[in-house]
């Protein structure tokens, strides 16, 4: 059964507590928290204090997606405020292996994200070290964008690479996921679906999470 990780980026920030309660009470598996620095991506989201507050009420793991340059500068801080998993971007890391070891040495699950134009082949050497690969299905930085269909090929190829290794790495897909395309993404080989607008812009977010979970 695949996992669903609602992205709080699409939540009403004036009612963040209510959004956390929705995730807690729903079939969702992880909280997906998007951190943007205004440099790696052309947007700024939120930082440690918000993660800390979310973590204080979260009854499920906090999955932190770092869309930032030099993530090594902030990884220990995110651990302190409650991150259970940290995913860094392939495109933002000069010494990716060192970044992954840093995350794991602090006792967290380590993930690497790749942008839509980055081939999955670039992960071959690091794959045995990873707990999560995050295949971006939109260019990172904003919620509410359209799913890039080339993602299907990347997910299929990555799933085969993981299978050939005999590994149990999660394949997470993030961006433009809806109730309509969710089952095809899972069929291609994804086992974690991230969804922002599909969950928090829905009239009934708990139901939307249930629909993504049953896809
Ligand atoms: C985009 C973020 C996503 C975003 C997804 O850079 O990584 O997690 O919140 O939003 P939707 O599901 O609306 O595309
Ligand atoms: Zn994300």
Share in β-strands: 15-25%
| Shape by Cα distribution | globular
The CATH fourth-level homologous superfamily = Aldolase class I
Strand order of the largest sheet: 1-8-7-6-5-4-3-2
**What is the multimeric organization of the chains shown?**
single chain
N-end to C-end Cα span: 10 Å
Question: Mind describing the biggest β-sheet?
Answer: 8 strands, parallel
Structure write-up:
With 215 residues, this protein is α/β, with parallel strands linked by helices. The protein has one domain (3-213): Aldolase class I (TIM Barrel, Alpha-Beta Barrel). The chain is built from 8 helices and 8 strands. The protein has helices at 16-25, 48-57, 75-80, 96-105, 151-165, 182-188, 197-200, 205-213; strands at 3-6, 31-36, 62-67, 85-89, 109-114, 132-136, 170-174, 192-195. It has an 8-stranded parallel beta sheet with strand order 1-8-7-6-5-4-3-2. Helix 2 (48-57) links the parallel strand 2 (31-36) and strand 3 (62-67). It starts with a strand and ends with a helix. The chain binds D-xylitol-5-phosphate (DX5) and zinc ion.
